[in-house]
Amino acid sequence: xxxxxxxxxxxxxxxxxxxxxxxxxxxxxxxxxxxxxxxxxxxxxxxxxxxxxxxxxxxxxxxxxxxxxxxxxxxxxxxxxxxxxxxxxxxxxxxxxxxxxxxxxxxxxxxxxxxxxxxxxxxxxxxxxxxxxxxxxxxxxxxxxxxxxxxxxxxxxxxxxxxxxxxxxxxxxxxxxxxxxxxxxxxxxxxxxxxxxxxxxxxxxxxxxxxxxxxxxxxxxxxxxxxxxxxxxxxxxxxxxxxxxxxxxxxxxxxxxxxxxxxxxxxxxxxxxxxxxxxxxxxxxxxxxxxxxxxxxxxxxxxxxxxxxxxxxxxxxxx
Length: 319
Description:
By secondary structure, the chain is of the alpha+beta class. 45% of the residues lie in helices and 22% in strands. The chain folds into 2 domains: 141 residues, Beta-Lactamase, CATH 3.30.450; 154 residues, Alpha-Beta Plaits. 30% of the residues are buried.
C-alpha cells in the first residue's frame, strides 16, 4: 500500500515537473543532464532524450562555464541554495522572449535558483536548476526606470534649447561654490545674451527668434566639456559653469564661443540671419558670501560688454 502511494506521489511529482511554467534541470556532479522538463524542451528546441546525460555546457556553450561551475560547486559543497537575478545577470541561458503581445525584448530575462539534492545517505549528489521567466517584471522595471530618467531630464532641462534650465544649473553652481569653500577649488561662470534679439523677433517673428536661440544653444553644446554645465538663464540669456577654471580660462572659452556665434548663419526663408553675443566672465577667486554673488559679477561683466559696443567679452575686475 505504501509502495503504491509512493508511486502515485512520484507520478504526480513528475507530472508537475513536466507541466510547471519554469525550467527544471537536474545535473549530476559532472554537470550532466539528468532531468529536462517540458519548459526546457520548448524554449531550447532540445528534447529530453537528446539532453539526457549530456554536459550542460555542451548544450549551451555560450554560458560562462567557469562562473556557473563555481556556483554549482558551492551548492554541492555547502549544501545550500544559490541564486542569480536578472538585475545582476539578465539570463542564464539565452532564450528568445515569447511574450505574445507586449513582448519588447529579444531575450527572456531570468532568475535562477540552484538547489542541492541529497541522496538517501544525506550527501549532495545532484543540483536542480530552476529557471524563472521574469521578462514581464524586468521589462516593467526597465520601462519605469527609463520613464523616471526621462522625467528627471525634463525636470532639469529647458524645453526650447535642451540645455539645463535655470533651477538645475543654479543648483550646480551652488554645489560648486560649496566645493570651493571647502577645498579651495576654482570655477568660472560665463554669462551671455544674444545682441539685439528683440530686433530679430520684431523683424522675423518669434518662431524665427526661437530658432536663433536653438542654434546658439547648439553652438554652446559644441564648445563645452563633459564637466561643464550649460543652461538657459531666461529669454535670450545663457550661463555656462566651467569647473576647475579661472577667469582667464573662462575668457578664452568665451572668446571662442563669441567667434563661433558670430560665424553662425540661421536661415529664414532663404535669408541668412547673423547674430552676435555679448559675454561676461567671473570666477571664484574673489571673496563671496554665496554663489549668487558670482552670478552678479558675471552679469555685471556682461553689462560692460553691452555698454562698450556688444559682440565682445568682458572679465570681472574684482580682486
